[in-house]
Structure formats: C-alpha cells, structure tokens
Amino acid sequence: MTMIFGMWDSPYFNLGPIPVDHLVVTEWVIIATIGIIAFTATRNMQMVPRGLQNAFEWVITWCYDFFTQLMDKEHIAKKWAPLLTAYFLFILFSNYSGLIPGAAHIEGFQPPTSNWNVTMTLALFTFFAVHIAGFSEHGIHYFHHFISPNPAMLPLNLVEEIAHPLSLTVRLFGNIFGEEMIIAYLMFMAPFLVPSALMGLSVLLGAIQAIVFTILSASYIAAATGEGH
C-alpha cells in the first residue's frame, strides 16, 4: 500500500505549480495511444472497411452491442454507448499496460487501474452519468425514486446510491492491485517458471475486469432510465 500512496509524494516533473507523478504520465500515454489508434483508423474512412478501420469498427460495434443490450430504449443506448466504450478501452489498456515487457523495471510504473484514485474517478463518472441520464429521461420525476415506495426509504435509497460507485471502485482496484502483488511475489520466487502461465491469466482477468466494470455502469444507467423511475 505504501507504493500506491507514496507515488503522490514523489512527482515525476512539474507543470508550473502542479506536480505530475508517474501514474498520470502512464494515463496520458494510454489516452494518447487510444486517440492515435482512433485517429489513424478513421482519418480516411472507406465504405468497405479494411485494415485498421475494419478492426476499429469491429471493436466499436462489439462494445455497442454488448454493453448496451441491457438498455431497453434505443436512444438511451446510442447516447451512452460512447461513454461505455471509452470505459472499456481505457480500463482494458490500463490493465494490459502492466503486461508490457520490462514495465515492472520502470521506476514508478504501475497500471493505472491498480490505483484506487483512478478507479474512484471512473466510478464517480458513472455516478454522475447515472443521475444525468435519469434526470434527462424522466425530468424532475426522476428524484421520486429516492422516496419510493415511501419517504421512510430515503436513507436506504441514498445508501444504495453511494454503494454503487464505492463497489465499482473497490472491485476494480482490488482485483488489479491484488493481481499485480501476486504476480510480483511469484515472479520473485520462480522467475523462470511462472511468467508464461501468469501472463495468460492476466490477459483473461484484465479483459474480464474491463467488461464487468462497463456492464455494471451500463446496468446502473439502464435502471435510472427505465420505466420504473
């Protein structure tokens, strides 16, 4: 845990009065990588896609079909698909950044999703997106669900709303941080036997965690925009 919190005390460099640590730099690299791939894939789009455009369109289509299937309303799915796709790609790239050969030997490097500050920020985006989506769909009537089925339920309903981002934060952070710690210890004990098996397991777990976070976010938005509200 010292590694996680200590990084904020040793900035990599400063932008004026603002300290920038290794974790922020890693996030910038991941965001830039996704942006470059998206720009390259779409700068000269063809009616019959091929190459990188074809692969990128497949990813976008898969994300739309997979993550928005929980939403009954087509216009809601189209409105929030970009956010859900961005979640999935950022979390997936973040999880896989720890698998880059030699990454463990880079001073201060760690996958962004193994830091609770990053997972909490993503969870807060979901929290606000849920209520924005609910209010946009139902207007002022949306807030009636906080006192449904009767006003006495207000405290419990508020706790439930707070529990959603908290569970998203802890689930993603705990799984990725725990995976990093286990791999580090096993690599130390058996550096020549463990790597290949662990790499395969990490690839699977990294994808699963990205899918789970995005599915839960989609389900919360679907619940807020559903007819029940």
Notes on the protein architecture:
- This protein has seven helices and two strands, in the order αββαααααα.
- With 229 residues, it is an all-alpha fold.
- It has one domain.
- Strands 1-2 form a two-stranded antiparallel sheet.
- 26% of the residues are buried.
- The N terminus is likely disordered.
List the helices and strands and how they pair.
Blueprint: H1 2-6, E1 13-15, E2 18-20, H2 22-42, H3 51-67, H4 74-97, H5 116-138, H6 154-189, H7 195-225
Antiparallel strand pairs: 1-2
Helix pairs in contact: 2-3, 2-4, 3-4, 4-7, 5-6, 5-7, 6-7
Unreliable residue stretches: 1-9
Question: How many distinct beta strands?
Answer: 2
- Total domain modules: 1
Strand order of the largest sheet: 1-2
Largest sheet composition = 2 strands, antiparallel
What structural class is derived from the secondary structure elements?
Answer: mainly alpha
**Could you report the average pLDDT, rounded to the nearest whole number?**
79
H/E series: HEEHHHHHH
Q: Whole-number radius of gyration?
A: 20 Å
Percent strand equals under 5%
Q: So what's the overall shape?
A: globular
Fraction of helical residues? 55-70%
Tally of individual helices: 7
Termini Cα gap: 41 Å
Which descriptors would you attach to this protein?
mainly alpha, disordered N terminus, 7 helices, two-stranded antiparallel sheet, 229 residues, 3% strand
What would a concise description of this structure say?
By secondary structure, this protein is mainly α. It has 7 helices and 2 strands, in the order αββαααααα. It starts with a helix and ends with a helix.
